[in-house]
Write a structure and sequence with these properties.
372 residues; alpha+beta; five-stranded mixed beta sheet; elongated
C-alpha cells in the first residue's frame, strides 16, 4: 500500500454519513470528543509538571507511562472528530494501535506496581511515626538541655575550690621558697600545673555548654579577616617558629563572628600545636565552592593521626595523643563541630601518621534562618 492510498479517503464514507449529516447529532459528537481531547491533553501536562517538581516521588516513571497512554487516548478522540468529515480510517486505526501499545504495557506495569505501592506507609502510619519522632526529639532536647545545665553547674561550682587551691599553692610557694628542697619544689610545681590543667578543662567545658545555649547573631563576615584576627591573637604562642602560611582568598559569609572566631582559634591552634616538632611547618587554609555549600579546609604537615580513630576526633574529652606530648583538653574540636552544625554545616578530617592532617567543614551558601 502506497502512502497516497494509506492517506486516501476515496474508498470510504465519513462518519457524518452514519449520522445522516444531522447537525445536532454531528455537533453532539464533535463537541463531546473535543472536550474529551482537551481533558486528555491537559492531564498529562499536569502529571509531567507534578513529576518534575517532585523528583523524589516513588515510582515516578508510572506517571510518565500514564501521560503517554492518556495522550494517545486523546489523539484517538481527535481522529473521531476528523473522521466525521474525512474518512482516513487507516490513519485512525494506526493511532488506535499506538494507543493499544501504550496501554497494555502501562496496565502490566500497574499490576507489577500494586504490591510495592501497598507496601508504602499510609498517611495514618506516617502520622504515627512523625508523632513518635516528635516525642523522641522532644525528649532528646530536654535531655540535652539538662545535660548542658548540669555541665555548666558542675563546671561553675568546681571553679571556686580550684581558685582556692591555686591561691594556697601560691602562698605556699612564697612562704616556703627557701625551705623546700628541689624535689619538694618540683612536686609543688606538678600540683600547680595539674590545677591549671583542671581549670583550663573546666573553662573549656563551660564554653562548650554555652555554645548550645547561646543564640546565633549572624552578620556578613570576611573569613580572611577573621583568620588574620586569629593569627594576631595566637602570634605569641608560635613566636620563634618557622611557619609557612598559605591562605587562599576565602568567601564572605553570613555567620556568627564570635562563634566562628572560636572555630578558627581551635583549628589554627591545633595545626600549630601538632606541628611543633617539625623544623619547618606548612599550614594551608583554603575553600572550594560546591553546588550548595562552601567547603573549607586547614591542612598541616604535623604528626597526623590514624584514620581508624577518626571518629574520636570530634568527641568531648577525646584525645589521640597523650597530654605529655601535646597539651590540651580534648574539647576544641567538639566545639568546632557543634558551631558548624548550628550553622547548617558538617565537619570531618583526614590524616596519616607523621604525614599531617586535613580538617574540613562546610557552610551553606545561604544559611537557613531556622538554624539560628
Amino acid at each position: 500500500m502506497s502512502i497516497r492510498e494509506f492517506l486516501s479517503s476515496e474508498s470510504f464514507m465519513p462518519h457524518g454519513c452514519c449520522y445522516l449529516w444531522k447537525p445536532s447529532l454531528i455537533w453532539l459528537h464533535v463537541i463531546s470528543d473535543a472536550l474529551i481531547v482537551l481533558a486528555y491533553y491537559s492531564i498529562p501536562l499536569t502529571l509531567v509538571y507534578f513529576v518534575r517538581l517532585r523528583k523524589n516521588l516513588p515510582f515516578h516513571w508510572i506517571y510518565l507511562c500514564f501521560a503517554t497512554f492518556i495522550i494517545a487516548c486523546g489523539t484517538t478522540h481527535l481522529m473521531e472528530i476528523w473522521n466525521v468529515w474525512h474518512p482516513t480510517y487507516w490513519v485512525s486505526g494506526i493511532i488506535k494501535a499506538i494507543t493499544a501499545m501504550a496501554s497494555v504495557p502501562t496496565a502490566i506495569l500497574l499490576v507489577y506496581l500494586i504490591p510495592k505501592a501497598l507496601a508504602l506507609p499510609s498517611p495514618e502510619a506516617l502520622k504515627k511515626i512523625n508523632k513518635e519522632l516528635e516525642l523522641k526529639t522532644s525528649q532528646l532536647t530536654v535531655a540535652n538541655k539538662e545535660l548542658e545545665a548540669f555541665s555548666y553547674s558542675v563546671s561553675h561550682d568546681l571553679r571556686a575550690p580550684l581558685r582556692h587551691i591555686m591561691g594556697y599553692i601560691n602562698l605556699l610557694k612564697e612562704d616556703t621558697e627557701s625551705l623546700l628542697n628541689p624535689s619538694a619544689r618540683h612536686d609543688l610545681e606538678a600540683i600547680s600545673h595539674a590545677t591549671q590543667q583542671m581549670t583550663s578543662l573546666i573553662e573549656n567545658l563551660l564554653a562548650f555548654s554555652q555554645v548550645g545555649n547561646s543564640g546565633i547573631n549572624k552578620s556578613l563576615t570576611s573569613m580572611n579577616a577573621l583568620i588574620q584576627e586569629t593569627l594576631d591573637l595566637l602570634a605569641p604562642s608560635f613566636n620563634g617558629r618557622q611557619i609557612e602560611w598559605k591562605i587562599e582568598s576565602l568567601p564572605t559569609l553570613s555567620v556568627d563572628q564570635t562563634l566562628f572566631r572560636q572555630v578558627w582559634v581551635n583549628l589554627i591552634s591545633n595545626a600549630v600545636k601538632y606541628t611543633k616538632n617539625k623544623e619547618k611547618t606548612l599550614i594551608q587554609i583554603g575553600a572550594r565552592e560546591k553546588e550548595h555549600v562552601w567547603e573549607f579546609y586547614i591542612q598541616d604537615n604535623g604528626v597526623g593521626f590514624d584514620m581508624k580513630y577518626v571518629e574520636k576526633l570530634f568527641g568531648v574529652f577525646q584525645r589521640l595523643h597523650g597530654i605529655e606530648e601535646f597539651e590540651g583538653t580534648g574539647i576544641g574540636l567538639a566545639n568546632v563541630q557543634r558551631i558548624v552544625m548550628r550553622h547548617g554545616g558538617k565537619t570531618w578530617a583526614e590524616g596519616n601518621p607523621n604525614q599531617g592532617a586535613v580538617f574540613y567543614f562546610t557552610l551553606p551558601k545561604e544559611i537557613p534562618s531556622t538554624l539560628v
